[in-house]
Prior knowledge:
- By secondary structure, the protein is an alpha/beta fold.
- It has a single domain (16-228, 292-313), classed as TIM Barrel.
- It has helices spanning 43-55, 73-83, 114-128, 147-159, 173-186, 208-215, 258-273, 278-286, 302-309, 319-329, and strands at residues 16-18, 25-27, 29-32, 60-62, 94-99, 133-138, 163-169, 190-196, 218-222, 294-297.
- Strand 5 (94-99), helix 3 (114-128) and strand 6 form a beta-alpha-beta unit.
- It starts with 15 loop residues before the first strand and ends with a helix.
- The model has no long low-confidence stretch (mean pLDDT 97).
- Bound molecules: NADP nicotinamide-adenine-dinucleotide phosphate.
Amino acid sequence: xxxxxxxxxxxxxxxxxxxxxxxxxxxxxxxxxxxxxxxxxxxxxxxxxxxxxxxxxxxxxxxxxxxxxxxxxxxxxxxxxxxxxxxxxxxxxxxxxxxxxxxxxxxxxxxxxxxxxxxxxxxxxxxxxxxxxxxxxxxxxxxxxxxxxxxxxxxxxxxxxxxxxxxxxxxxxxxxxxxxxxxxxxxxxxxxxxxxxxxxxxxxxxxxxxxxxxxxxxxxxxxxxxxxxxxxxxxxxxxxxxxxxxxxxxxxxxxxxxxxxxxxxxxxxxxxxxxxxxxxxxxxxxxxxxxxxxxxxxxxxxxxxxxxxxxxxxxxxxxxxxxxxxxxxx
Length: 330
Ligand SMILES: NC(=O)c1ccc[n+]([C@@H]2O[C@H](COP(=O)([O-])OP(=O)(O)OC[C@H]3O[C@@H](n4cnc5c(N)ncnc54)[C@H](OP(=O)(O)O)[C@@H]3O)[C@@H](O)[C@H]2O)c1
């Protein structure tokens, strides 16, 4: 008997965009488990977030070997939810994981070797209790391992049935192009690139987005809210329950500068004129490119997920709004 029955209307409002030239569609918003799903967090809160996300059409859950803390614990938390709440819904889910950053000591615990990536995906599958993940990513470009080796192992991981699709994350445009060529020649096209993109970090607007369009790859953008800075969260100080307020959060108080807050306040005026919150406008803004398949958000409350999904009817920008935003971000 499943412990939870999801909402019947869960596919009624969420748009799904095709991922590059693949057969796979991803929801406009995906949920990332980088923060708030670790061993330090309350399992009941994690459960509420995953349930609400799935209930409103978020079919894609994004993980990595090192998410926690401690590293690995977000996969364990998600694995427990897969065995209980989501047990009857595996075929409705796109579950991704990654390897690239430090996971265990010694020379085989990070980067892009065949040794590390195969061991890591096997550990991830065990932690989540899965036979396969939908997308497996090389989490970062490794300057010391031949790209042929790293892409060869992504192809191997797909062919061995451990993953359905291969992806790369944080690769610069030139290495992305080479990676795409190698994978295409191996017969496992590169599905997707996961890259940071938000109003404070526009690097993908350089060469990357064009490269992805030319290569037929999808793009899923992470930290679209700049880890919470592009919201009203920090306008009146640093709340104790916020990412910057917690001892283990990656956003540190020194990142929240007066200069950034001043811009956020100005962005708030544009958002208000659109009838949106700052967070909602920031999400709609990253999704304005047709080359962006999905934005992977984080959340610490069910309300944040609901507020973020409420962008769906208001995604377009006028030329004047884009101009005002550009002026603020200059
Ligand atoms: N590939 C990579 O290298 C990489 C790197 C980083 C992240 N990622 C992926 O991207 C995912 C998302 O990253 P992120 O968590 O940094 O994304 P984000 O969406 O930029 O930030 C999420 C944080 O913003 C705050 N927030 C969200 N909605 C809000 C709202 N409506 N109003 C006010 N505050 C709101 C929450 O902060 P509080 O917790 O303070 O409430 C939440 O934890 C990760 O979970 C991970 O899957 C990938």
